[in-house]
Amino acid sequence: MKIALAQINTTVGDIRGNTKKIIDYIDAARKLNIDLVVFPELAICGYPPEDLLLKNNFIESNLHSLHDVVDKTENIAVILGFVDKDRDGIYNSAGVIQDKKLIGVYHKILLPNYGVFDEKRYFKEGKEVKVFEISGEKIGINICEDIWGNDIVKYDREKGAEIIINISASPYHYKKIKERENIISNKARNYNVPIFYCNLVGGQDELVFDGASMIFDKVGNLIGRAKQFEEDLLVYEDGVNCRIEKIPDEEEEIYKALVLGVRDYVFKNNFRKVVIGLSGGIDSSLTATIATDALGRKNVVGVFMPSKYTSDQSRIDAETLAHNLGIKFVTIPINSILQTYLIALDKEFAGIKRDIAEENLQARIRGNILMALSNKFGYLVLTTGNKSEISCGYATLYGDMAGGFAPLKDVPKTLVYRVAEWRNEINTVIPENVFIKAPTAELKENQKDEDTLPPYEILDRILYYYIEKDKSAEELISLGFEREIVLKVVSMVDRAEYKRRQSPPGIKITPKAFGKDRRMPITNKFAN
Amino acid sequence: MKIALAQINTTVGDIRGNTKKIIDYIDAARKLNIDLVVFPELAICGYPPEDLLLKNNFIESNLHSLHDVVDKTENIAVILGFVDKDRDGIYNSAGVIQDKKLIGVYHKILLPNYGVFDEKRYFKEGKEVKVFEISGEKIGINICEDIWGNDIVKYDREKGAEIIINISASPYHYKKIKERENIISNKARNYNVPIFYCNLVGGQDELVFDGASMIFDKVGNLIGRAKQFEEDLLVYEDGVNCRIEKIPDEEEEIYKALVLGVRDYVFKNNFRKVVIGLSGGIDSSLTATIATDALGRKNVVGVFMPSKYTSDQSRIDAETLAHNLGIKFVTIPINSILQTYLIALDKEFAGIKRDIAEENLQARIRGNILMALSNKFGYLVLTTGNKSEISCGYATLYGDMAGGFAPLKDVPKTLVYRVAEWRNEINTVIPENVFIKAPTAELKENQKDEDTLPPYEILDRILYYYIEKDKSAEELISLGFEREIVLKVVSMVDRAEYKRRQSPPGIKITPKAFGKDRRMPITNKFAN
């Protein structure tokens, strides 16, 4: 039996486009004499469809498209994800199709409802493990979470399954691929059964699905793996060595996740070009580099917006970066605009010394300029803030936080440097000086991030425990961090929730990102 | 037996403050010779605590406070909501306490996971209906959703319950009180049992809990009702007529929900004062009126920011409103600021005609001015956009959408007028002219909302069906709306999702609000 895992990049809601892609892959598979071609979870409607699932016409349209696929399966079998429906509700489902007949439907039993997942909001739980016979092989079919939890594979085996096929939409975060590999390998070995795992690929708002579909033999050895972060068709044939794509090191993997996330967000939302405020710092430099790799240099515009606090070195670094990337570079000074604001506010601000209000005004003028360019030319604005900043609220709402997408939103500052270093190894695009100089917002004289924040090496470790591990302040102190710093950081994180609620979406690359992954109340008097 | 429903206003995370309030009410009840005093769902930690529930120290702190309450129950019985914990997980629970002993714990069985609710994200389901004997009475206890679903009251009765007590945190939307009354009245009548329903009161981010706790006799008659939108202690005694507070008409009820929502958001987030951009239009007029009623006139600042497109009449209307309300009124013209932006952008914009970019710049300058005042003086900025605008994206991101809280976010424009008219009946604060003139953003010459949007009477009906009822475009057309208008509105709503994702929270007053209530993907190619 010849099985192909068709790891496709779907778009949420694009039922017609996804269906066309599925049919194209079926045709391609048929030409390769494939017996069975497998598509990811909810391939027809895209994942996660969120509240589109509450629309009856969305469900009907997806069912209609399932039957379009059925009609295109002459001489081939297909397993694919769709939304099934009965009188009780809707189901996250796998359709099993052979030679123009829908021979069965499996309903996902284990519905994840944690982290970024809300499947119990929409779906009824499946009640029955199912094994189908396709070309004489007994195949147990399950969906994503089903294989992470207990017992489904065991019941598949008890029902006679000789092969397990799992269709997934498993979002990326760093080290996740190893988790998946361990889980599935153990299931294969424990139940003495080969497992074919077909994962989604592509970006969808905050999520990137990384593909890397896998095949394990019945003793748990990895015997096949598709590409990560790309569409791929992984073909398996008995007795023939299957392809095993290499998995890159962590920095490269994260970089590729960010590139795919940016590309899909921009293009799937019908934008072509992006505009980025370049400050000469590491965050905007890496953001522009990712954007250039994702979209091509002609689709990226860098805007340098100096104030009187901007150093010459910042201009040199920003301009050098733009030159190295080959992107358009525009300079728009903000001093005169700031002056007119200060004149307009003069009466109200009279006698009060300069403070954060004037600092934020500069950031907001820059935000306005980028948005004006966005409105005029149809660019999407990419923001440049990293996870450390957004955690602490060290960012200006409607200022540097203004934009449609925030590529580094889930990348802590220390990791920004590591990823940028990795990228520079390919070719030096980010000027060396950007790595060396102390981070600064340049919103007042001689300002440095460390005037306000602890050193990033310490800050990022505190944030890791506080945000990703939900440790309390006392637990952090007992881990050896200084009490004063811990209390300061925890308080900054809690107070910045209102800012995060208004920040653009970014790409999840850690086990716990902001956004749908971490749902904190704004009104919150809990003393951590 | 003398029972009191203590409908208190808790704050999420303020475990110490909530506990102190609970103990104060217990003391007050004891002085009234109450036998049993009942508090709302999750009274100790506030509702909904969201991802605070994932923090172990949050759960421990709440358990610790439960025992503080237990110690204060000499000669009285108490039922109250808290988070219980066992080796399997955590439970949305009711503690039953009598005379310094925790005599039992009930775990909520039906966990809502739709609309604004995510209880399956956190809680394990309770497995057992429970009936407790308190002062010789057999009392079946359940929690919120338990009484909306089937069978729990039936099982309570089968277990011998002679009284049912339900503790709730039921969020407000218009007409909801009637739904609750019908549901509970039917349960009482069907199972021939009196029901005591204790609801939470207060604002929490997007939600307002309206209180209006109720008592039904065993044939389903309403025999007691607490105040709506206020803390209250409703006392019931056998053979004594109980108080039944009146429920206001819809406009008044909505107005009060908005006032409570604003007051609690502002004060619970440690602000004292708010600042509002006054345009002379109905939205900012109503927002300022609500804020003044919620916070007091000394805590509201109105800022009028004219451009060359601003009419004299707008200034007169804004100034008259501020005068009528007795709030501070500041004028900050934006023309000169706009000019410096246009000069700075001159090179980039050369040869391109004026469009939405210049319009949005004006709105964003105003946003920046309000935020500068916020940063300088610690004011919270209230935005003034209504649900019709935010639905269609007829609002400027980082412009008129800039602010910490959006009181009218869930109020359609036609309802804005109705609510404002109701408020003006008390005393005329909003100038009559504001009701008469055509709505305009005044961002270009002779601009009217209806240049871009259908008439609000039609728009609001389309939005009702499309957003609250999830009807498709075709269904809307078959209801009699013009195809062209339907397709335009539906497309505007879908394309504005990215703006809504970055909008401040507002107060839910309809069955489906934006925010946690309606979770649409941004990247979405579904053709409705």
Low-confidence segments of chain A, given as residue ranges, are none
Proportion in helices of chain A? 40-55%
Mean pLDDT over all positions of chain A = 97
Number of strands of chain A: 18
Give the largest interface pair and sizes.
A-B, 85 and 85 residues
Termini separation of chain A comes to 57 Å
User: In percent, how much strand structure appears in the residues of chain A?
Assistant: 15-25%
User: What global shape of chain A is seen?
Assistant: elongated
Oligomer: homodimer
Largest beta-sheet characterization of chain A? 6 strands, mixed
Rg calculated over all Cα atoms of chain A: 25 Å
Q: With helices defined by DSSP (H or I, 4 residues minimum), what is the helix count of chain A?
A: 20
Structure class of chain A: alpha/beta
Strand order of the largest sheet of chain A: 5-4-3-2-1-14
Overall description:
Two copies of one chain form a homodimer. Helix content of chain A is 40%, strand content 18%. With 528 residues, chain A is an alpha/beta fold. In chain A, the strands form four sheets. The first copy, chain A, has a six-stranded mixed beta sheet, covered by helices on one side. In chain A, strands 6-7-8-9-12-13 form a six-stranded mixed beta sheet. In chain A, α1 (15-31) runs parallel beside α2 (56-70), α8 crosses α14 (413-426) and α10 (335-344) crosses α12. The first copy, chain A, is elongated, with a radius of gyration of 25 Å.
